[in-house]
Amino acid sequence: MRTRPTHMPGTAGSDIRTLRALAPFLWDYRGRVLLALSCLVLAKVANVGIPLVLKDIVDHLDVDESSLLVLPLALLLMYGCLRLASSLFTELRDSVFARVRHGAMRKVSLRVLEHLHRLSLRFHLERKTGGLSRDIDRGTRSVSSLMNYMVFSILPTLVEILMIAGILLTRYEVWFAVVTFVSVIVYIVFTMVITEWRMKYRVTMNAFDSKANTQAIDSLLNYETVKYFGNEHYELRRYDDSLQGWEAAAVKSQTSLSALNVGQAAIIAIGVTLIMILAAQGVVDGTMTLGDLVLVNAFLLQLFIPLNFLGIVYSQLKHSLADMSLMFDVLNRDPEIADRAGVPDLEPGNAGIRFEHVSFAYEPDRPILHDISFTIRPGEKVAVVGPSGAGKSTLARLLFRFYDIPAGRILINDQDISQVTQDSLRRAIGIVPQDTVLFNESLLYNIAYARPDATQAEIEQAARLANIHGFIAGLPEGYATVVGERGLKLSGGEKQRVAIARAILKDPRILVFDEATSSLDSRSEQVILEALREAAAHHTSLVIAHRLSTIVDADSILVMENGRIVESGMHQSLLEQQGTYARLWALQQEERKLEHNAEK
Predict the structure, then answer these.
(1) What is the three-class DSSP state of 410?
(2) Which residues contact 404 (CB under 8 A, 6 or more apart)?
(3) I want to staple 208 with a disulfide (CB 3.0 to 4.6 A). Which of 125, 246, 470, 589 is the partner?
(4) Which burial class, exposed, middle or buried, applies to 127 when counting CB atoms under 10 A from its CB (0-12, 13-18, 19+)?
(5) Residues 6+ apart with CB under 8 A from 334
(6) What's the CA gap between 361 and 368, in Å, rounded?
(7) CA 280 to chain CA mean position, Å
(8) pLDDT band at 572 (very low <50, low <70, confident <90, very high)
(9) Average model confidence (pLDDT) for the chain?
(10) Which class does domain 12-331 fall in?
């Protein structure tokens, strides 16, 4: 698989790449973003104006006893209006930005799921479902968190810092602005340096969290296997080992956070104390009024209270970026199988299939198929048999183009399947797989999955042909019966019949049966075989079979061994050759005889 380079989460370069990857999801909402930012600035203008009006109110009331005390009503009304405006514009900012935050989160989630469906079968066979789901869950939630921190915490604080510093610089001695700027800069630099150092603990926590979740999900998905071997304590021990690693990193993260908070508090305390000393000295010297002292104090409260939380916000921002980087790493994976630009859709036509000198290996050092060539003429039924590991099921995977082949070609209706769109290719093929996995939904949903717009009557007809309608009708909830995760509430034979009903309902030009009756008893098998013959009557069919009795009517039978076709022909001619097929037939006939005697 081609994979773009990944980078260590939490580094400056990784953060920039993550923000760049997020930008396209925000671009659709650029109008709302600008409106929200305008509301943010207006809210901060009103917020900074409050201490200025408060200063004038105090100065009006700070008069000698001999002077006439007049209530500054206009200033008091202005004070109230500014407080209302600050709250109004803040709430308006939140309301306008809500669509951006939740819309971007929805689009990212949709994009990730779409991309996961585009990734190759190889990726999904190698993935760790629990860890991947946790990475994606954290990443999508972090999209919302990141925008919250940026728009509701960091940007407002920075705007307010600039406004307050500007007022202090223009109205008072330069030292007020100098002390404020130096305090803020030292605070920010200290916070960033310590937070960058702490990020390694967050990355470690994420790694152990994903590992623990993977182990937990795996043990639950394999519940029966765990019970068969009595390995509950073993699974708990593995899970706890990962949780202990997470716990150790979490404790270090919290301890270092406490050290960060103490350092931040010290910087703020020193800055506030120096500013108040300067202001008090100004009042004593007569260069500042009591209102000026109140103004400076109010500014410091407005500045340092949010700044006190900036450290926590920056820390959470870094955590969100680290979480998002793992999710975008998945998005940065290039699909192994991709449509070439401008390729047409497949025209199934008469649906003839041709394998021409196909060789294939899942891994370079383990070749699976060697120079495979055969033809399935339109409407023919061709069966492939052979021992386990011969490469039979690989033929179906290659026909679906789950992998590209390094040598040879596969053609449908004389079109190379690598030169058509994957969607059109897969629409033309229906399959009954050996291992049927169902959705944790109703039987109706699972059968209709082949054609979601199918009518109830069409679904029931497909179920009848698959010999499962009677079973479903006998259930208390009928077609509304939920089958459980991966279809665990159904037997192997019932799941296989649902898969057959699904393939019949799809009604494709090509049908692939991969051990389609392997989980059925002999009686059900005969009924299903008749249904499959009817379903395949006007289709081109590839049948991968273990039970040779199911394919005696095939137009041609290919016998595979060690990735090569060693024999081919019809059933009777293969028996007469006295080769591999004849030996397999004799062996299975003997097994059937033993089973029949055992039933007696």
Answers:
(1) strand
(2) 336, 337, 418
(3) 246
(4) middle
(5) 1, 2, 3, 4
(6) 5
(7) 58
(8) very high
(9) 82
(10) mainly alpha
Tokens encoding 155: 């940007």
CA-CA distance, 478 to 471, in Å (whole number)?
9
- pLDDT score, position 518: 64
Where exactly are the structural domains of the chain?
12-331, 353-428+508-599, 438-502
Joined together, the tokens standing for residue 498 give 């649902």
List 568's β-bridge partners, or say none: 558
pLDDT of residue 7: 47
* Third-level CATH fold of 353-428+508-599: Rossmann fold (3.40.50)
How far apart (Å, rounded) are the C-alpha atoms in residues 321 and 267? Answer: 26
* String of DSSP letters for 200-246: HHHHHHHHHHHHHHHHHHHHHHTHHHHHHTT-HHHHHHHHHHHHHHH
Range picked from 67-76, 489-498, 567-576 for highest mean pLDDT: 567-576
532-538: Cβ within 8 A, 24+ apart: 532/500, 534/465, 535/465, 535/500, 535/503, 535/504, 535/511, 536/381, 536/511, 538/379
Determine which of 183-197, 376-390, 528-542 has the lowest per-residue pLDDT on average: 528-542
**Cβ atoms of residues 509 and 540 within 8 Å:** yes
Task: Pick the closest to residue 470 from 439, 497, 449, 508 (CA basis).
Answer: 497
Q: Which pLDDT score, from 0 to 100, does residue 517 have?
A: 67
Beta bridge partners of 536: none
CA distance 41 to 39: 6
Computed on alpha carbons and rounded to an integer, the radius of gyration of the chain in Å comes to 35
Q: 211: pLDDT confidence band, cut at 50, 70 and 90?
A: confident
Q: Return the structure tokens found at 524.
A: 């059900």
Question: Distance between CA atoms of 335 and 331, rounded to whole angstroms?
Answer: 10
pLDDT in tens, 334-348: 888 888 888 999 998
Q: Are 509 and 346 in contact (CB under 8 A)?
A: no
Check residue 596 and give its pLDDT. Answer: 62
SS3 at position 357: strand
Q: Are 479 and 455 in contact (CB under 8 A)?
A: no
Q: How many CB atoms lie within 10 A of CB 277?
A: 11
